[in-house]
Write a structure and sequence with these properties.
Number of helices: 12
Helix content: 40-55%
Largest sheet: 9 strands, antiparallel
CATH architecture of the domain at 16-263 and 341-360: Sandwich
CATH superfamily of the domain at 16-263 and 341-360: Cupin
CATH topology of the domain at 16-263 and 341-360: Jelly Rolls
Distance between the termini: 54 Å
Strand order of the largest sheet: 3-2-4-5-14-7-12-1-15
């Protein structure tokens, strides 16, 4: 497996061709050992970088150390300019004068990160330094520092969980250690993807995977994290579309990485162009939101609709030209669903061993150890509890038998004595009760007869009185009703005569008034209608414009009021995430790339 053909006397565990096949063939993360230990760049610690860069200023991102269940996106960080030397002094606890802008931040509360720094820009005045990076050892001749980026950070510095739309990633750890949390592409739905903040070619997760809010993002429990700590000299392969969150473990960390282009990148660029167009159009229309709130600092400024449309057309053209150049024309296969042709992952995976370590799912290792310890504890505990229960049961049974024997003898004696006393009392009581009942029965019968006689005489008297009273009331009612009817007839006749006279007079007056008013109203109506028509024409246009604006605002407020209490309000970012969901964008790209020629 060792090869010296393209690296002189340097011995490598894999040849350049073998390493290239692994990079293109693996669909899971892996760590290469002893592939870059002799690179000059492997000695780029902060002391060496400080000498190489001298007083060149780098942009550092300043974040706060916190245990927050929400990610700390780059839009929420501070930014300062400083040299690597000043950064080194800040970490070392030197005076504020030597730390420059870093002196304004307590390193116990904040971390610093110079990320995404292109070596070609940093060393544009010293291009020979770029030759210290030798990706040719991985089968990419001519690839070096010009195609690489530098990352310098302090303990706690991190990159929020995201995926890169383009290529796969090779990362050389130079100084310190970094912990990588990786998730396979099929975990995308469990990571709640979002395009805000927007960065071309990066899709962020709304989950802080290092301290997740499981109640807000319950599906994250179904994700499959793969965790690895990368040490100096090791090179990590991050396959295409693997999610990753990266955090610095040591006080100072230095990394160099390169994104390796893949043949599928032309397809991904079409999807990114569609996403850029939608995001910029959608967010730019909301004038209440500043671009800094939704645009990642790495993007600079929002691009115009015309620029985005041109970018989309160029991406589509590049894809179609590559398709024609490679002779792809299988109409049965959708253009964005081609599979790898460089060999199966199983064959490449057979090369795992001393110098190629797979990154395994983190929970599997922890579960195996945890289950063994748990079972041992349960067995030991169970045996102790069983013995205790058996001892306690034996003692309880012995005591129970002794108690039962003593109690039985005592109860026998008490029962014999009690029965004799009870029988004597029952005989005496029975005789007394019998005599009492007979006396009471005789007295009760006598009283009932006397009561019945008295009640009968009383009822007769009351019946007679009731009949007399009823007759008197009926006679009085009849006379009163007769009088009322006669009075009502007389009053009705009188009222009818008066009403007739009054109505006649009223009608005459109303007719006279009505005629006069009608004539006046008709004249006024004619003049008023003419004026109103003229005024209405001018006012109608103004009112329609105002009404349209008002109705739009009112509808939005009404919808918000009618929303059920506790329900999450639909925000513009939520709508945008649906519009630029990777599956939706992929479908739109397929439609664009397969549309008939015009």
């Amino acid at each position: 497996m060792e090869d010296t053909s393209d690296t002189g006397s340097r011995m490598k565990p894999f040849s350049a061709q073998e390493a290239r096949e692994i990079v293109f063939g693996l669909d899971r993360p892996a760590v290469f050992l002893n592939m870059a230990q002799d690179w000059p760049a492997s000695r780029w610690d902060v002391a060496r970088l400080s000498d190489l860069l001298q007083d060149k200023s780098l942009r550092f991102r300043i974040g706060k150390r916190r245990l927050d269940p929400e990610p700390q996106f780059e839009t929420e960080c501070h930014y300062i300019d400083g040299t690597v030397g000043q950064f080194r002094s800040w970490i070392g606890g030197d005076s504020s004068e030597r730390c420059g802008a870093f002196g304004g931040f307590d390193r116990a509360e904040f971390w610093a990160y110079a990320d995404y720094k292109y070596l070609a820009v940093l060393f544009k005045d010293r291009p020979e330094i770029l030759q210290d990076v030798l990706w040719e050892d991985f089968g990419f001749p001519g690839r070096g520092g010009r195609e690489s980026t530098l990352w310098v950070g302090s303990r706690g510095a991190n990159t929020p969980c995201h995926i890169d739309s383009y290529g796969c990633n090779l990362v050389l750890q130079v100084e310190g250690r970094k912990r990588w949390h990786l998730f396979p592409p099929e975990d995308s739905d469990h990571l709640y993807p979002t395009r805000i903040p927007y960065e071309e070619s990066s899709i962020f997760s709304r989950v802080n995977v290092a301290n997740p809010n499981r109640s807000r993002y319950p599906s994250f429990c179904n994700a499959h994290p793969h965790v690895v700590t990368l040490h100096p000299g090791q090179v990590l392969l991050v396959p295409r579309h693997w999610w990753h969150y990266v955090e610095s473990v040591d006080d100072i960390t230095v990394s160099v990485n390169s994104w390796i282009e893949l043949e599928w990148d032309d397809e991904a660029r079409v999807e990114e162009a569609i996403t850029r167009m939608v995001v910029c159009a959608f967010k730019s229309a909301d004038t209440s939101v500043h671009p800094n709130d939704w645009l990642n600092p790495t993007e600079g400024a929002a691009t115009s609709h015309g620029t985005n449309l041109d970018y989309l057309n160029r991406a589509c053209t590049a894809y179609l030209e590559r398709k024609r150049a490679t002779g792809e024309g299988d109409e049965d296969a959708p253009p964005l669903k081609k599979r790898r042709a460089n060999g199966s992952s199983e064959v490449i995976g057979s090369r795992f061993g001393q110098y190629l370590l797979p990154v395994l799912p983190a929970p599997g290792e922890e579960d195996a150890t945890g289950k063994a310890e748990t079972r041992g504890k349960e067995n030991a505990t169970g045996k102790a509890e069983t013995r205790g229960k058996e001892d306690a049961t034996g003692k309880a049974e012995t005591r129970g038998k002794e108690d039962a024997t003593g109690k039985a003898e005592t109860r026998g004696k008490e029962d014999a004595t009690g029965k004799a006393e009870t029988r004597g009392k029952e005989d005496a009581t029975g005789k007394a009760e019998t005599q009492g009942k007979e006396d009471a029965t005789g007295k009760a019968e006598t009283r009932e007869k006397e009561d019945a006689r008295g009640k009968a005489e009383t009822q007769k008297k009351e019946d007679a009185r009731g009949k007399a009273e009823t007759r008197g009331k009926e006679d009085a009612r009849g006379k009163a009703e007769t009088r009322e009817k006669e009075d009502a007839r007389g009053k009705a006749e009188t009222r009818e005569k008066e009403d007739a006279r009054g109505k006649a007079e009223t009608r005459e007056k109303e007719d006279a008034r009505g005629k006069a008013e009608t004539r006046g109203k008709e004249d006024a109506r004619g003049k008023a209608e003419t004026r109103e028509k003229e005024d209405a024409r001018g006012k109608a246009e103004t009112r329609e414009k105002e009404d349209a604006r008002g109705k739009a605002e009112t509808r939005g407020k009404e919808y918000a009021r009618e929303a059920s209490p506790g329900a999450d309000a639909i925000t513009s970012d939520a709508v945008l995430d649906c519009l630029v969901n990777p599956r939706v964008v992929r479908l739109v790209a397929q439609l664009l790339l397969t549309r008939p020629s015009r």
